[in-house]
Design a protein that fits this description.
The protein has 150 residues and is an alpha+beta fold. Helix content is 26%, strand content 31%. The strands form two sheets. Strands 2-1-8-6-7 form a five-stranded mixed sheet. The chain is globular and about 45 Å long. 15% of the residues are buried.
Length: 150
């Protein structure tokens, strides 16, 4: 009985594969006829994601400019202000806080007292947690270590 069920399953699978192969053969045409604007699915996943360019500055006027960075980051669409900071390669210490990720230190320069890390997008101070601030192509991001008591 078990052997008979296995033969039926194998026959059904063979029939399905044959039907699929015949169906695909009927769709064959020249490469030009089948060309589409679809992404090349043979590329690694990260190569298929739309890329955006974000001019990024990291400054630390509250610490004699101990940490600095100035370059344009090319990163996947849907990235956040935190993703862009991470893409710099600077050492980053961040932790989950009540409302989102909180940056404690960049390249060893840690928040202390009234000094700490903040960021702007297109010159505007942002109140959104950095891991929830989604960027669009060309947004200018600046992370700054500032002395809030000054």
């Amino acid at each position: 009985m078990k052997e008979q069920m296995m033969k039926r399953a194998a026959a059904g699978l063979s029939a399905a594969l044959l039907a699929a192969a015949l169906g695909l053969a009927g769709c064959a045409g020249s490469a030009e006829e089948n060309a589409t604007d679809a992404p090349n699915l043979n590329l690694p996943t990260e190569s298929r994601i739309a890329q955006i360019s974000i001019p990024l500055k990291v400054t630390s006027p509250g610490a004699d400019n101990q940490v600095s960075y100035d370059d344009t980051i090319t990163i996947g669409e849907g990235s956040t202000a935190l993703d862009v900071l991470q893409a710099t390669g600077l050492e980053l210490d961040a932790q989950q806080a009540e409302y989102g990720m909180f940056v404690n230190a960049v390249d060893g320069l840690a928040n202390e007292g009234m000094k700490g890390w903040t960021y702007t997008v297109n010159g505007e101070q942002v109140q959104t947690p950095a891991d929830q601030m989604y960027l669009k192509d060309g947004d200018q991001v600046t992370w700054s270590y500032i002395d809030m008591s000054a």
